[in-house]
Amino acid sequence: MNKNxxxxxxxxxxxxxxxxxxxxxxxxxxxxxxxDLVSYLGGYHAARDxxxxxxxxxxxxxxxxxxxxxTPFRFVYPPPFLLTMIPLEMIxxxxxxxAWIAGSVFAAWISVFLLSKGTDRLKxxxxxxxxxxxxxxxxxxxxLVCGQxxxxxxxxxxxxxxxxxxxxxxxxxxAFLLPLKVGFMPLVLFVKGRRALLALVVLLICLSFSxxxxxGFNAFHDWMFCLRLINExxxxxxxxxxxxxxxxxxxxxxxxxxxxxxxxxRDDEYRFDLAERQRFVSQMLFFxxxxxxxAVLFYRLRNLCKKSIRCSRDSTLSQSxxxxxxxxxxxxxxxxxxxxxxxxxxxxxxxSVQAILFILSxxxxxxxxxxxxxxxxxxxxLTWLFSTAYLTDTSEPDALQPRPREAGSRESSL
Length: 414
What we know:
The chain is mostly helical. Helix content is about 65%, strand content about 0%. It is globular. The protein starts with a helix and ends with a helix. The relative contact order is 0.10.
């Protein structure tokens, strides 16, 4: 048995250990009806009953008719997502729930296995960091407890990276990523090559027609109306929202537009006026931060281009994920699993010190008991977003320097 085989067996053993630790930690913590999985069930059953899957009352009534007396959240995902609920027509819910949980655990650890490819001599650092992030922080645990889909999204992104963003398999992974989270839809633009694009387009068409056949065309109209309602509300100041939208809401309500809460409790007109002013100031502050961040990123990228430093798809994807973890309206703690992708990028480029600091900061971000206010955690991905460590490569120093002129070349002769 050669060295590579031994390392491969050790890697698989570590990943299986991580899966077992994850399962043991989640044992007894996952409710029979996880809150997000219930919202999927409510939307699915409402659609099967001929109703609107995005109507909270109809979803609740459909669940109650089936003996599920749990108040669901509003279902907000695109209609093709409801196709994932079809197995409920063939198997009981308890088996479906078990398959969902097991699939989430294995999707997360298979993602680690795929992302470890290409980390070369610093692979132990990546495996150790990923192991700690998924077993100690609350990112994967929260995904399981809520019945979320983040681990499946991580697997789709990992497949795209593993395949070099090209090929039919990449197109299939991107097609399954697209119907999951609206905020992460732009990540499918990283696919390249005819085969990947063809697989993406064909599968999206199949999923769209299947969902129209399954839930009807009106579901797409209902989904757009649901998104419009969410956008108009702008109410993203949930206590566990880690997005910059929560941070600006907190700053606005406590510093910029402070109101008389006692008066607001008895004066409806004043309460509505105060809420509208806070909403307007929050939006302006959000767009100011967004515009400033884009300007800084553009300036840094322009300077790198002047130095003839090319940005790979891996680098740009890492920056994009950090950008989304800051600026999409709602960022939950289970999104912390996405930190594995920029962490891999630091390890791949040989930035071991930055990689260690990054995973430590990701642990703080993904732990609810961390001794910092929740709304200040947005500074962690925001700070790393402006780091050029993702775009420079210490393992290839020649890439950072201008190329020397070759003897006999046209430039040297001039």
